[in-house]
Amino acid sequence: MAKTTPVHPVDEVPPARQLAAFGLQHVLAMYAGAVAVPLIVGGAMKLPPADLAYLITADLLVCGIATLIQCIGFWRFGVRLPIMQGCTFAAVSPMVLIGTTGGGLPAIYGSVIVAGLAIVLLAPVFGKLLRFFPPLVTGTVILIIGLSLLPVAGNWAAGGVGSPDFGEPKNLALAAFVLAVVLGVQRFAPVFLSRIAVLIGIAVGLAVAVPFGFTDFGGVGDADWVGISTPFHFGAPTFEFSAILSMLVVALVTMTETTGDFIAVGEMTDRKISPRSLSDGLRADGLSTVLGGVFNTFPYTAYAQNVGLVGMTRVRSRWVVATAGGILVLLGLLPKLGAVVAAIPAPVLGGAGLVMFGTVAASGLRTLAQVDFKGNNNLTVVAVSVAMGVLPVGVPTVYEKFPDWFQTVMNSGISAGCLTAIVLNLLFNHLPARGGSGAAEAGGLPGGGVEKAVEKSREEAV
Questions:
Q1: Are 96 and 389 in contact (CB under 8 A)?
Q2: Percentage, residues of the chain above pLDDT 90
Q3: How far apart are CA 53 and CA 32, in angstroms?
Q4: Which of 347, 4, 327 is nearest to 163 (CA)?
Q5: Closest C-alpha to 302, from 340, 337, 331, 273
Q6: How far apart are CA 230 and CA 157, in angstroms?
Q7: Which of 174, 367, 403, 415 could be stapled to 347 by a disulfide with Cβ–Cβ 3.0 to 4.6 Å?
Q8: Are the C-beta atoms of residues 75 and 203 closer than 8 Å to each other?
Q9: Rounded-to-integer distance, Cα 53 and Cα 339, Å
Q10: Which of 124, 65, 80 is nearest to 327 (CA)?
Q11: Digit-coded pLDDT (tens) for 162-204
Q12: How far apart are CA 423 and CA 289, in angstroms?
């Protein structure tokens, strides 16, 4: 009898019932972050409520399309892993600056289109840089991603930034209740239910929140049933040099962040990232960003909060996240459904976020456990990289006196920590040892005094 080739967990297609539940769980995990970017940019530009609503529905639609491209893929576009796509926060400050200094939305969208094309062209170059991401670097980056996200969950748990009752004990109590439900389901429920622990926790938290007045569904009645996003709704894009330059810096930052997310998901799903798959994933990011500029939204990147959900639930199928992309497309076409999801209180999301984002950090520690820290400087690499990554998270105004391009790079804890880890790894583990002696490594870089585990390829080290 002919043997059937076993299907990798990433390519498995769960039953329809599980696809819907797991997919909805991913949507709830990223929804607040997805709508935050258009709200911040539109609010800073003082757009009327109708335009704000349009930005949100357009964003959700392109989020869904971008996720489908990334998960399913076609030709050389898409990493074909369970990766959720959403608007990058690295672009918020430059876009607000462009939009409020005379350029308006057309100048934003012109720069976004150029940045997307640049990402497509640069994707093969970034793919060749994968050898600079040994477990020492990847573990550090994944750890920083988790640590950078934890304040987001903390703000949600307290009621959401700008909320008049921010930090009220009732908000933290609701978040703690949701966290307890998630942990209880994960520990005591059957396997299938434990894998949708976050979804159950959010549903139970919402059920408790409604009678206690935590949420208001008034916006659901005001929302339209159908909303169609049309290309260049706010006018033809304009191409201003300064706007394009700042958005190209954002493109480099998002490519660095996305590389870290891809590697993290590759570790969690046991499908290691190759230079080709990294290039394909980044190319999909660029295409989605171009679509964002055409359909009145913003640059796109992999969402780290969903990386944590993959690690926590151990559901590795890319078709689950593709289903989430389909749900986002529906939310973008049916604003009333989007309004229902938007009514979920921030503390409910905060309780679920604490365990999801903590899972990302713990995954980084698991990767670092593969690294030898004896008789070398690897501990220094981790220590300084984590410090540089957490610094802008703990002190958000630390770089406010620096130029805009520097702030764009360093205000993102993920990109700051990632760049630091890459540079320090090269400094300590690839440059010649003291005295100039050092044998050439297989990859062509000289090395000196480094541990073998760090010099191995990622596949060998794992």
A1: no
A2: 16
A3: 14
A4: 347
A5: 273
A6: 36
A7: 174
A8: no
A9: 10
A10: 65
A11: 778 888 888 899 899 989 998 998 888 887 778 778 888 888 8
A12: 28
For 300, list phi and psi in degrees, rounded to 5: -120, 150
Amino acid identity, residue 328?
L
Of 39, 123, 128, 103, which Cα lies nearest the Cα of 245? Answer: 103
Tokens of 194: 């434990």
- The answer to whether the beta carbons of residues 70 and 282 sit under 8 Å apart is no
Looking at 334-461, list the stretches that DSSP marks H as alpha helix, in order from N- to C-terminal side.
335-342, 346-368, 378-394, 404-410, 413-429, 452-455, 458-461
CA distance 71 to 214: 35
The widest CA-to-CA distance across the chain, in whole angstroms, is 73
The rounded distance, in Å, linking the Cα atoms of 62 and 288 is 7
3-state secondary structure (DSSP) of residue 462: coil
Q: What is the DSSP letter of 91?
A: G
Q: Are 139 and 385 in contact (CB under 8 A)?
A: no
| Contact status, residue 129 vs residue 260, Cβ threshold 8 Å | no
Report the amino acid identity of residue 128: K
Q: What is the value of pTM for the model shown?
A: 0.72
Beta-bridge mates of residue 77: 74
Question: What is the amino acid identity at position 242?
Answer: S
**What DSSP string runs through 433-460?**
PTTS--PBPTTS-B--S--HHHHS-HHH
Q: What is each CA distance from 49 to 31, 229, 343, in whole angstroms?
A: 19, 16, 17
Q: How many Cα atoms within 13 Å fall on the side-chain side of residue 326?
A: 12
Separation of alpha carbons 203 and 197, rounded Å: 10
Provide CB contacts within 8 A for 423, sequence distance 6+. Answer: none
| Chain centroid offset of residue 261 CA | 7
Which pair of structure tokens corresponds to residue 46?
Answer: 């003082």
